[in-house]
## 1
Amino acid sequence: MQSKRVKYFAMLVAALTVCAPLFAHHGAAAYVDKIVVLKDATVTSFLWANPHSIVMFDVKEDNGTVTHWAAEAGSPSAISLLGWNRNSLKPGDVITVYIFPAKSGNPVGRLNKVVLADGTSLRDSQLGGEKKSSQ
Amino acid sequence: MGGIIFRWEEASEVPAVIEEQAALIDCYSGESDSDPSQLQTVRSSEMRNLLKFCIVLMAGALIIPFQASGQDSPQADRASNSLYNKLGDTGSGGTAPRRDLTGFWAGLVEPKLSEVSPYTPWGQEQARLHKSTGDFSVADSNDPAQSCDPLGFPRNMLFMTRGIAFAQMPGRVLELFQYDRLWREIWTDERKLPKNVGGDTADAPDPRWYGYSKGSWEDDYTFVVDTVGIDERSWLDNDGHPHSGDLRVQERYKRVDHNNLQVTITIDDPKTYTKPFVITQANFKWIPQQDFEEQLCVPSEQAEYLKVIGDPAAHGKGQ
């Protein structure tokens, strides 16, 4: 029991010192708190827009059906500090998408990051994962 | 996911923050996802001890951030998209010029906020009506910012505070904001602040989203601004704290040296809160290139966002 309590303590310290502000962040209430990975996603459009940029892409299922996704990211001025630009994604690009999907079950979500065909990783400004990724 | 089969897999390397976030939920609920069957056997006294851990840590979490210097807090780490964090330690830059704030300054996108004072009954009723995006999806929130309505003051000093600038001229100081590319006029001449904004008389001035402001130098490096007449439709901050038309805000800008500017913002609204309180103490850094980016809330682009993302995220097959 003692070791379990120590484990709880460690988890709580980590959570409260790192994640409490993120937990309450604006706009995140609609999304599950787990990242899923969508491989071989084909970009259909990239909206470099304010206050949210939007990446739209298609993912082909094993049964051949295609699901059209839309994922939000930060504003141009926010994500440009993380290496994005208005030409980062073009229709037809095949990428891997790390996303916090919507609780609603619809194919929308908040980006964690995208990984381009050349291996370049572009993170979101709000829920882009590891700390100091932009440093 | 509502029966839809997506070709996805859970991330093999889920960032640690996500797992820690789940742990935070466990703290609130008093449950553990790591071994629920064992947890059910925990004696009640041990459960109480666990809850004591939670309470003590929650208290610590509330206190510690407000004692931090500002740029190294967890919230600062999260806001990695800010120019403020990118700049890092810019040093002092030498002595500050006397009675001069002129220039472009980078701020934390979301400065740390302190606890608000207890509500009055009227304030409590107003707060109940505000559905912030911290608690609701953007589609279900009634945050005025979701329709690109003005943030208003002081919310624009507490949220999306990416950059501010000052331009001093005879009789007034202009304060300019990167977000929404707007400005405030701060009178420094002999004018007095209006006393009956929004009143019933014909000569009563209209409430303004950014109020009426008057400033003066308290000493060579401290500029104090008082603001009244703020439109009640604006929210005090991103969490949806309300305010009344009686709100008075005081900003104290202290230029520490050439490269560093501090502001302390005090809220005094006796109709809404039982006593005045400092809502934030924020730091700004001199922007080396002395320039802003353009950042707007574009109504047509926000409408597209709500249609493509906001509504589907909030309402769908899983609801």
## 2
Amino acid sequence: MTAIFDHLSLGFGAALSLANLGFCLIGVLLGTLIGVLPGIGPTATIAMLLPLTFGMSPLAALIMLAGIYYGSQFGGSTTAILVNLPGESGSVVTCIDGHQMARQGRAGAALSIAAIGSFIAGTAGTIVIAIFGPVLAAFSQKFNSPEYFSLMVLGLVSAVVLAHGSLLKAVTMIFVGLLLGMVGTDMTTSTQRYTFGIPELSDGLGFVPVALGLFGLSEIIVNLERPETRSLLSGKITGLWITWQELKASIPAVLRGTGLGCGFGILPGGGPTLSAFASYTLEKKLAADPSRFGKGAIEGVAGPESANNAAAQTSFIPLLTLGIPSNAVMALMMGAMMIQGVAPGAQVMNQRPELFWGLIASMWIGNAMLLVINLPLVGLWASLLKTPYRMMFPCILAFSCIGIYSLNTSPFEVVVTAFFGVVGYVFAKLDCEPAPLLLGFVLGPLMETSLRRALLISRGDPMVFLERPISAVLLGLAALLLLIVIVPAARRGRETAFQE
Amino acid sequence: MLKIRAPKDFYAGLVFVGIGLLGAVLALQYPLGSALRMGPGYLPTILSCVVVLLGLTILLRAFVIDGEPASRVVWRPLVFVTASIVLFGVTITHVGLVISIILTAVVGGFAARDMSRIELIVLALGLAAFSAVVFVYLLGQPFDLWPT
């Protein structure tokens, strides 16, 4: 137990330097900004800013990018409550009751409880990482190629199970992603695969162009298809106070949401959006009078907003301890670490403890900053919402181009980004979620390497994955998950959970 | 006569089958190897075949279950947004950052129907100035500002 305090004090020491505090502040402010503005999400923002982190120290870069992520979860709630639009996908359910509260003149209370809940959840998330991070990291020391392969299989399976929409399409998207990951030079034989003779492709498709195209550009195109409808709630936001009764109703919801978020955040494919949905469903089920939901029940704001923030926090665990990203934003964080020459995984904690613990400490500091600065700034954020989208998107386009080009000074990657923008648009039109594809794309090369190595160790015997106990348990879990989804009853349960 | 009952799924299946077939045909050029010593073609072939199979399943299922109608493609944003990015990639090494950004913003701006000409010109010039100051002078990114 004392070890945790030693670690945390090391972390706070690193995170509290003036420069790092500054980057933390920039990160959470930027995160809140893009969280508030609908039409641009953390995935695209982090992809755009990644090249700028070249010159920073590794810790400062990670602190800033992480701040963007959890800051955006925080900002998303403001838009959900005031405009009835999710600023961020994690805030979709907050619209339901949050906006109703705003219509009843309780916007201030809704914003406050979202902020307080987020802070409590953020604190809990920080503690969970501090406790479970080292345990998982120590455990992963036992891992060899077969275990890593099985772990990635489990990760992909749970990403499919937890994805929105059609299961079959999500599975297919994963395989398309794995296939895209094959582009480039084969590591063992140095054969050029799927490179079409283009020299730039011999290192494989760049991760940032693919992510920015699939998530950023395609979203802009889709947004521009429909005319802008944004009805900002007129009238001033009066008072941020919460009544005693509202607080009493909220606290249990905050705690339950925090618990759910911490759990779902760790699962690959889980993350903030799913946690918020789960929390809303749970609160509605537990409520003495479920009919209040949809009419401004404060629990419907408190629970999901805590859950999405907790999940944003704990989704760092798989990346920091196992080196495996659990969602698209974590895949970008992995890219940021590699740019800085830090290999993600358990060794970070042992070799660069100040990096690991500094990042964790900064998350708590960042959450405290969000609580202190943002409530007074609500008016400013609300006025930013009046910016029309037609003025916003050319800026996003220009900054995306600059970001992508300066990553490798490569004009080719800019064109790749445009290409994946079109690909993402086609998939969006066909209701195919891009997130599983991106996970498959990131994990593809890692999986191929560990699969080949594992089979080399076992002299081609695939039983190696079942003979090694840890690997067998991981594969068993994956099979169990798949079974649960395929069984019709559970499948119905999953569908209703997403509908609510 | 078979009727497509889930057009969106039908087209999705079609796209997947296309991707899978392309992947499989290209993978034929690479040595396959065996499970013990996998050649560079081993996994791509397997993955492509799985994509084809899954795509076929989605495609055939579209005849059996009801689903959403296909949504219409609005060409204007698709064409102008894509063109603006490609334009940046093509011009940046030749004309420098300032001109490239102006081109990108102006062409991209055509994607929005409700943009006035004056708004667009002001926005493009402002963006170019902002990018030059922030990214090149302050952040030291590797750009030429003007044609070299």
